[in-house]
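Comment thread on ticket #2218

A.B. wrote:
> Attaching the input chain for the structure job we discussed in standup.
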Amino acid sequence: MPDQWKAVFQLCCLALAEAAPARIAIYGSCAARADVDAEYNLQGETASGAPMYKAVASDLHIYFDPSCDGTTTDSRWIISHLSGTPDRSLAHDLDGDAACNSVAYISSTSTVAPPQGSTWTMDCGSTQSVELTIEEVERSGQQIAPAFFCAYSCENRGKVTRPGRCFEKTEVFWTRGVSWMRLATRMSEIPEGAGVNIVPLTEEWATYSAGDMTWEGWFHVKAAPAAGRSMLIGTFGTNDADNTFSNQNRRRHGAIWLETDGTLGLSSNTGESSGYIQGPNVIDGKWHHVAAIWNQTAGGGAQLYKSFKFLHVRYLTIAGRAAILEDLIVNLKAAMAQESNTSSDDVWVYLSDEQVIGNEGRTAVSMVVNVERKSADIALARLVRSDTFEARMMNALRITTDIANSYTGLLPVENNQLIYDSVFPTMAYVGNGRLLVDSIDYAGRLTYSPLAENIADNGQFLVGGGHQGRAVECELANVRLWSVALTEEQLHAVQSCSLPEPASFIGGSWPHSLHAAWSFNGHFINSFGPLDNLTEESAWEEQLGTGFNSADGMNYPYWKNLLTGQAVQTYTNEMDHHLSRLNGGDFIRGGLCDFSACPAISPETLCPLERSVAFFSTEECEAFASFNYCRQAGSTRNRPSMPHLDGCHLGT
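C.D. wrote:
> Ran it. Output below, let me know if you need it in another format.
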């Protein structure tokens, strides 16, 4: 053995053993159990060593039970509803009902994975034999929990560390549930001679957000916001509870939401964007890498387009009466949602004046419908073949409040309306949004079509909470903003403790699509890219808008101290306007990359950084480990008597 192998060294083994798929999908259920047809995420192993899966959007679980009632010997794979967090340590009767009730089951002795392409017994109102297809959902580049050996000493002293990595001395930012970070996306004031009445976007933000984007970072969420959902990252502002902005019909935003149940979600309504992607519960005592990808160019979403005209309906009357206009659009959206099997939030309606002569009255209607790309052709065919479209649109017109004031033509005017120039529907591919947590791409539909609007048109960019003044108790580190839709391989690269040089895996000229990189390692400095630094939000938050926090009994505007709950109508500079290190958020030691995760012999000086050897099978890893692990001392002499360090095992 070479002499240098006798010194303290770090051996890191990545064990990619054969494992159950991280996500599976089921197809072929009977109509009565259509909810079974869904995607399921791996939850871990049960006491029998078999994987357990949970549906992404329900409490349906798939698991292996050696005895479904605790007495029978008929082992089976089961699909059943399990509320709460199932106890995976149970040896049998995993649902705890002392019976064999289930949505579906199949007898089997294999604990490796649910049988694929087999006949299951399913409760479809009556017991039926149903051919279910179970397939792995490909998640290329998915992060796998690694196995690590830290620095070992093969000297007589036999000092050893526990499994983990040896990294640097790092800090993270802890909000303490009272603060968040804000990036100014607009100028501080309107430039002289600009000729606008709204403060414009900063040049840096406008450049960054003009195309594709990726927001990503590490978060350790400790509690959900009690008063309502908030954001981990997003552009839904803090200063107003109203969901509209400046007398407009909505508040444009893009956000990674933290819901009150601890789950993440992604949404945007910028331009013609709509949809929602639900992610996992992240309040589990662990750090999670969270990424939102906003892709305008890849065609991951789809839109349907349909237009027609109302005859003897005067547009100027509708446009001049806000109540009529709003109600008509609501009714038309609902009617199109029925036709296209979507929701009203997925439908955009535009009206224009087509009047040609006198008081004839003609109103043009253009509709845009956001649909899933994979089902866009079906939705288009549904519109093409519909024999109810015109009837539904006419009914939407008739039920509109005071719409008769817009009718024209011969008396009685309510008998003159009809639809003409109904254009054949068309389809186009547009952008989409994606939510990835710990490298898992979560299912759902978010059509991203911002058009000429900006994702921060109606709010500033916030990190770590702040939506409507709601703080999030969390720790955060390594938050970055990219002007490119990162691939899954690139997302893996940015999850390492030391960010690789962007030019090496992104390419291009400076800033290599990286516009901001905040490590939060004791400061708010942007270490890479042109965007201005984040600033820590004030403890005194200005609240505007009718009805906001009306229970406080304050007139508007007023200020409320998030730390004390004190509300005042007159703010003075003598008040502690800004958070301090004493009573607000703070930088603390910790994070996934801190050397405390691997306290080697002398972590300040002797823990080697980022030295590792990766393998693609358990056998390769164990063979290398057995050859190098204190080989001169042999398998017993001076070898640390710590069985949990032996062999190649998955870390946590």
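A.B. wrote:
> Thanks. Noting for the ticket: The chain has eight helices and 33 strands.
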